Amino acid sequence: MKVIFAGTPEFAATALKAIIDAGFDVPLVLTQPDRPAGRGMQMHASAVKQLALAHQIPVAQPISLRLDGKYPEIAQEAHDLLRNTPHDIMVVAAYGLILPLSCLNIPRLGCINIHGSLLPRWRGAAPIHRAIEAGDAETGITIMQMEEGLDTGPMLLKRAIPIDSQDCTGSLHDKLAALGGEMIIEALQKLKSSSLDATVQPEQGVCYAAKISKEEAAINFNLSAEIIARKIRAFNPFPAAHASIDGTTIKFWRAEVNHGGTSATSGTIIEASGQQGVLIACDNGQSVLRVLELQKPGGKRLPAQDFLQGFPLKAGQVFQP
């Protein structure tokens, strides 16, 4: 079976490596154009491109696949390349470009997607972040037959894993990427032998995982400590939950709910010590957040004890969003 692969970040690269290691023929890889990154804003290839080139697989990086979009000539070139590249199926994982119906219809067996949620929950761009933010007890991977709708296609395989109370988006991403790599091999092998049935997604339980914005990461201490702690986990490693104190923006990387309430107003530091961490009043004193790992501008992520040695905080100071 010949498999064209479309994907961009590490999540997708894990799946591509699994496909290559399983011995499937990958005649072409699609990925996003190189982007500037780092302090020097040098152009960087995606994780998928780097892996493909390391295995001498041809790479295409169209900026659009929509024939009726802003770049119809580029899209047409990509369509022609797909048609002229012998293949049976396209596997898509976190590609970042919309695949119009004109693309989905090219492969003989269509296009299948590795999606990081238990569909129909968390359709959309940020399923891992949103599952943690919402306090879901579990998530998983769905291998889905792609159609025009946003993550609405029939499900081919679905497998759940628990969300640990300490999981952040980074750790859960790695677990799901590994699971996705295992499941796409299973799906391809079953499709090869025509032994995989599709299940229509239920209409109940649909929700959308909107793209994460940097503005969301500013902590609102009027929320409960439980909600804030989930947001800190959800926005780790990106875009990093943060709050300002005396004009300095501090990133919060790890926190937990501290039992009990306080008479202090939202955002007020109750205690800042090596033993207790940084205790902050939330929800007008109805709950308390214990921050265990922080980062100042230009500094490293540090446990609260080490952070406070170089950036002292004291009771009564107030964090602002």
From TrEMBL:
An MF annotation (GO) of this entry: methionyl-tRNA formyltransferase activity
Catalytic reactions on record: L-methionyl-tRNA(fMet) + (6R)-10-formyltetrahydrofolate = N-formyl-L-methionyl-tRNA(fMet) + (6S)-5,6,7,8-tetrahydrofolate + H(+)
Domain Formyl transferase C-terminal, residue spans: 211-311
EC number of this enzyme: 2.1.2.9
Record PROSITE patterns: GART
Keywords assigned: Protein biosynthesis, Transferase
Signal peptide positions (record): none
Residues engaged in binding (6S)-5,6,7,8-tetrahydrofolate: S117, L118, L119, P120
Domain Formyl transferase N-terminal: from-to ranges: 1-188
SUPFAM superfamilies hit by this protein: FMT C-terminal domain-like (SSF50486), Formyltransferase (SSF53328)
Class of enzymatic activity (EC top level): transferase
Record family assignment: Belongs to the Fmt family.
Descriptive protein name: Methionyl-tRNA formyltransferase
Species annotation: Undibacterium flavidum
The encoding gene: fmt
